[in-house]
Design a protein that fits this description.
Helix content is 40%, strand content 26%. By secondary structure, it is of the alpha/beta class. It has a single domain, classed as Nucleoside phosphorylase domain (Rossmann fold, 3-Layer(aba) Sandwich), CATH 3.40.50.1580. It is globular, with a radius of gyration of 17 Å. The two termini are 12 Å apart.
């Protein structure tokens, strides 16, 4: 069995559509989705966003389980001008599987290997991205992989961190992080989102472009994950 984690269904929906023989499963109170890619069994779990919920769900998910390996999949933000929107990234500082093997399994696409930093919140400004890059030496950020890596290390599960870039210093989020996602509630408040864009109509084209980027990123990530499952 191969485990694959995403933060949210917004990241996983395209990949889940590729699974055959899908079924819902309850693992220690955590709802997961099982299915197959060719003859390989896969179990998908959503960690939620941020440390608290991610650590709690991971603990239940991996407890006493013998996964062949786990893929921490999802979106990431670039901290520099080298990683662009829709680029695939393997986090070399968190991944414990053979990265050469992983990159060979994705030989038909370009995959960057670089350090990823797990941060507590979405990063709004280009200046903040540049500061974090300078101080950490990382090339990209996410909000879960560090905690997934700790859980995998504690249970002896090999980890591959595979992320797709959705935002960069030149193509940031279309609204402040507090508008886009409420970490405490683990959801986007549509009323808050609507009020912001009604008050800032000049930002609406950016929101439309961001939605298109996300749709493309989901497909890029799903394509890559299918190849990883088939070949690793």
């Amino acid at each position: 069995m191969i485990a694959i984690t995403f933060a949210l269904p917004a990241e996983s929906s395209e990949f889940l559509s590729r699974l055959d023989a899908k079924s819902r499963f309850d693992r220690n109170g955590i709802r997961t989705i099982r299915g197959t890619i060719d003859d390989r069994e896969v179990e998908v779990m959503h960690t939620g966003v941020g440390e608290k919920v991610c650590r709690e769900r991971l603990r239940k998910f991996v407890d006493d389980q013998k996964f062949e390996f786990l893929v921490s999949a999802g979106f990431a933000g670039s901290l520099n001008h080298e990683l662009r929107v829709n680029d695939l990234l393997v986090a070399k500082n968190f991944s414990t599987v053979d990265l050469k093997h992983a990159q060979l399994s994705l030989s038909n696409v370009s995959v960057h290997a670089a350090n990823v930093l797990t941060v507590p919140a979405l990063i709004d400004s280009s200046e903040e991205r540049e500061r974090i890059a300078r101080e950490s030496g990382a090339s990209a950020v996410d909000m879960e992989t560090e905690f997934i890596a700790r859980a995998c290390a504690a249970h002896g599960i090999p980890l591959l961190s595979l992320r797709v870039i959705t935002d960069t210093p030149n193509q940031p989020f279309p609204a402040p992080s507090s508008v886009l996602f409420d970490i405490q509630q683990q959801r986007t408040h549509i009323a808050v989102l609507a009020r912001f864009f009604l008050a800032h109509p000049n930002r609406v084209p950016g929101l439309v472009q961001f939605a298109r980027r996300i749709a493309r990123a989901r497909k890029t990530l799903a394509d890559a994950l299918v190849e990883v499952v088939r070949t690793m």
